[in-house]
Amino acid sequence: MPASGTECSADWLSDQARAKVNLTLRVVGRRADGYHDLESIVAFADCADQLGLAPGPELALTAAGPLAAACGETSDNLVLKAARLLLDAVPDLKFGAFTLEKVLPVAAGIGGGSADAAAALRLLARLNGLALDDPRLVAVALKTGADVPVCLASQACDMTGVGEKLLPLDIPVLPCVMVNPRVPVATKDVFQALGLRPGDLRVGVTDVVTAPAWPEAGASITDWVRALERVPNDLELPALKVQPVIADVLATLGTCAGALLVRMSGSGATCFAIFGNTAEAQSAGRRIGTDHPEWWVHAGTLS
């Protein structure tokens, strides 16, 4: 596989599948069709799976890397699901064999599988000369999974609805530490623990009216932390019921010098802390990695 990053040659294309982090996550309610309406401020980390595509006559996927074994059956992978859906939507679509270098934890609340699927769609779009806002590509992204549309753009945004409404945001680079206890958490189990029935609402009109206005472009890390503090992750408490070790991760991050905001991402179990500067984040990451070698730890940035 070529070096990491987005690359293109006559017979090989590659792209990064960046981890998604939910800085906030409100569950507005559950619709009559069973889907949950959400509002989430989403950012993307500087850690990523790598996906390559060798154009050819056969649609295939090979997984490698330190966490490849956690991907499960290749036939169920979202990369192939997205590719097959696009094949159905676009006549004479060119495709080929994908190679996935898996470094992000699975079922971790950071959209690893969704990011992989989004990278597959970007690669197929480049191979076939499709724009990323092509309605067929956008429709396939949402049909593949709720987090795939936001991962398709991989840009900080306010995500609403079931994941299809995206409002870009200008956020500063946020030094952070991400920690996963290497325990998978199924999203369906967390929503089941939340306990909403079809038609139930959690966020009323008053909540919407008093929701914070997000900082303008050029705002500082401190400005953003103050705004984010006002809006929780509604899935944190139900996720703790499903996997109590999340409390240990949150507590550990909370003891780190310089941590400004500590929270769980998505439906867990990955948690994160935002810091005021890179040095503090790197120091915290080293300490946690030493104290908890069994955990997955990444010290880097969100943007």
Low-confidence stretches: 1-6
The averaged pLDDT comes out at: 93
Q: Architecture of the largest domain in CATH?
A: 2-Layer Sandwich
Query: What does the overall shape look like?
Result: globular
**Number of continuous helical runs:** 10
Distance between the termini: 26 Å
Number of DSSP E strands = 12
User: What is the share of helical residues?
Assistant: 25-40%
* Radius of gyration of CA atoms, rounded to a whole number: 19 Å
Stated plainly, the CATH topology of the largest domain is called: Ribosomal Protein S5, domain 2
Describe this structure in words.
The chain has 303 residues and is of the alpha+beta class. It has two domains: 7-168, Ribosomal Protein S5, domain 2; 174-302, GHMP kinase, C-terminal domain (Alpha-Beta Plaits, 2-Layer Sandwich), CATH 3.30.70.890. It has ten helices and twelve strands. The chain has helices spanning 78-89, 112-128, 135-144, 148-153, 187-194, 205-209, 221-229, 236-242, 245-254, 278-291; strands at residues 7-8, 13-22, 26-30, 36-55, 60-64, 96-101, 157-161, 165-168, 174-180, 259-264, 271-275, 296-302. Strands 1, 2, 3, 4, 5, 6, 7 and 8 form an eight-stranded mixed sheet that branches. A four-stranded antiparallel sheet has the order 10-11-9-12, with helices on both faces. A hairpin with a 4-residue loop joins strand 1 (7-8) and strand 2. It is globular. The protein starts with 6 loop residues before the first strand and ends with a strand.
